Amino acid sequence: MEMTIRWYGSKYDTVTLQQIRQIPGVKGVITTLYDTQPGEVWAQEKIHALKEEVEAAGLHIAGIESVNVADEIKYAGPDRDRLIDNYIETLANLGREDIHMVCYNFMPVFDWTRTELARKRPDGSTVLAYTQEAVDALDPQKLFDSVHDNSNGTVMPGWEPERLAHVQELFEKYQGIDEEKLFENLKYFLERIMPVCDKYDINMAIHPDDPAWPVFGLPRIITCKKNILRMMKMVDNPHNGVTFCSGSYGTNPDNDLPDMIRSLKGRIHFAHVRNLQFHTRTNFEEAAHLSADGSFDMYEIVKALIDIGFDGPIRPDHGRMIWGEVAMPGYGLYDRALGAAYINGLWEAIDKSERRDGARADGERPKWAPKFTG
Ligand code: DNO
Q1: How far is the CA of 374 from the centre of ligand 1 (A)?
Q2: Which of 70, 102, 215, 228 is buried most, with the most CB atoms less than 10 Å from its CB?
Q3: 369 lies in a domain?
Q4: Ligand 1 in contact with 80 (CB < 6 A)?
Q5: What is the C-alpha separation between 111 and 211, in angstroms, rounded?
Q6: Which residue is catalytic, options 87, 331, 334, 342?
Q7: From first to last of its 374 residues, what are the pLDDT tens digits of the chain?
C-alpha cells in the first residue's frame, strides 16, 4: 500500500502540501481539479500544472478523487454520450500525465450525506454525524443549505453550490430511475470508458454510497457485497474496481467489512480507512481512527487488506476537528495525520508479524540492525 492524504488544491484546502509532506510515510496525495464541474473536460495543461505543483513540494499525485460523473450520465439524459466522451477525454489526459487511479461515485444528486457537521464528543472534539430521523424530517434543499452554511467557509466535496442550486430540477430528472435502471446506466458508462482505461492503464475505483442506503427516495446501488460483486461481474475488467471505504460500507452494520474486502481481491484500487461510532443503527458519528474510539475493529480491516495483497493508495478518511483547527469538516490536518500514523502502525505490525510467523522458526528473531541514513 501507499499511504496518502487527500488534498483539494492550494486555492481550496486549509492544509498545505508542506504540512502533508511532514506526515510520516506520506509521499502521495490524492487530489482533483476542484474548480471543474461534472461533465467538463480536464485540460491536460491544467493537470500538468497541478502535478508540477505537487512535485515541487516533494510529493506526487497517487490518484484522483474525484472525476465526478455528471447526473445526466446517471439518469441517462439525452446528452449523456457527449458527456461520456468528455469523461473519456479527461481520462486520456490523466493517463498522458501518468495518473492511473480515478475515484468516482454513482450516487444520484447528493454525494455523501451527513446531518451534522460538528457534533461534539465527550473529549471536546467535533465530528460529522448522521441520523436517519434528521434526514426524514428535512427537505433536501434545507440539508444542502445547512451543509453550505456550516462548512467553515469551505466547499464540501460533492456539495457544489453551482450544481445543487438546481436540486429540485435534478430530483425531477431522476423520476422513474430505480435501482435496476441505475445499474444499467452505470454499465453503459463503464463499457464506454473501459477502452480508454485499458489504453492508459487507469484503475477506476467506484466509491460506495454513503450512507449505504437510499436517501430522499433516490436509488443507491453501491451499498453491499452482493451489489458490488454484481457490478464487478457486469463489466468484468480489472480496471473496473472499487474504492473500499470502511466508513461508507460500514454505515450498514450488516456489511461484514473484512469479508467484503476478501471478496474483492484484485479489484480494490483505493482504500479509505476510518472508524464510526454507532449509537443506534441509524444514529452514528465519525470517531477517531483507533478501534477503541469507535465501533469497528480496525485491526481486522487492515489485516484483510494485507491478506489480499492490497498494494494501491490508502488514506485516512474523515478526521475529527481537534486542537482548535478550523478546516473543512472531516478534512483537517491533525486528526487525519493521527489516522495515517495509526494505520501505518497497524500495517507494519500486521505485515511483519504475518511474514515472520510464516518464515521463521519458533524463538528465532531477525537481527536487530537500526539503519543509519548518513
Ligand atoms: C467524502 C468523500 C466523497 C468521495 C466521493 C467520490 O468525504 O469520501 O465525497 O470523495 O464520493 O467520488
Answers
A1: 41
A2: 102
A3: no
A4: no
A5: 9
A6: 331
A7: 999 999 999 999 999 999 999 999 999 999 999 999 999 999 999 999 999 999 999 999 999 999 999 999 999 999 999 999 999 999 999 999 999 999 999 999 988 899 999 999 999 999 999 999 988 888 878 878 888 888 888 888 888 887 777 888 888 999 999 999 999 999 999 999 999 999 999 999 999 999 999 988 899 999 999 999 999 999 999 999 999 999 999 999 999 999 999 999 999 999 999 999 999 999 999 999 999 999 999 999 999 999 999 999 999 999 999 999 999 999 999 999 999 999 999 999 999 998 877 666 656 777 878 888 77
Active-site pick, 71, 111, 317, 335: 317
Q: What's the CATH number where 190 sits? A: 3.20.20.150
Cα(157) to ligand 1 centroid in Å equals: 6
Which domain does 117 fall in, by range? Answer: 2-357
Is 245 a catalytic site residue?
Answer: yes
DSSP string across 37-54:
PTT----HHHHHHHHHHH
Helix segments in the chain, DSSP class H: 17-21, 44-56, 71-74, 80-96, 132-137, 140-149, 161-164, 167-173, 179-200, 225-234, 246-249, 257-263, 298-307, 334-359
Total domains present in the chain = 1
Is 224 assigned a catalytic role? no
| Residue 144 DSSP SS3 | helix
Which residue in the list 71, 239, 318, 335 is annotated as catalytic? Answer: 318
Contact yes or no for 228/242 (Cβ under 8 A) = yes
Is 373 within a domain?
Answer: no
Ligand 1 near 219 CB (within 6 A)? no
Is the pTM higher than 0.90? The answer reads: yes
- Residue 22 in any domain: the answer is yes
Cis peptide before 10 (omega within 30 of 0): no
* Catalytic residue status for 272: yes
331 classed as catalytic: yes
Residue 374 lies in a domain: no
In angstroms, what is the span from residue 113 Cα to ligand 1's centroid? 10
Q: Is 112 in the pocket of ligand 1 (CB under 6 A)?
A: yes
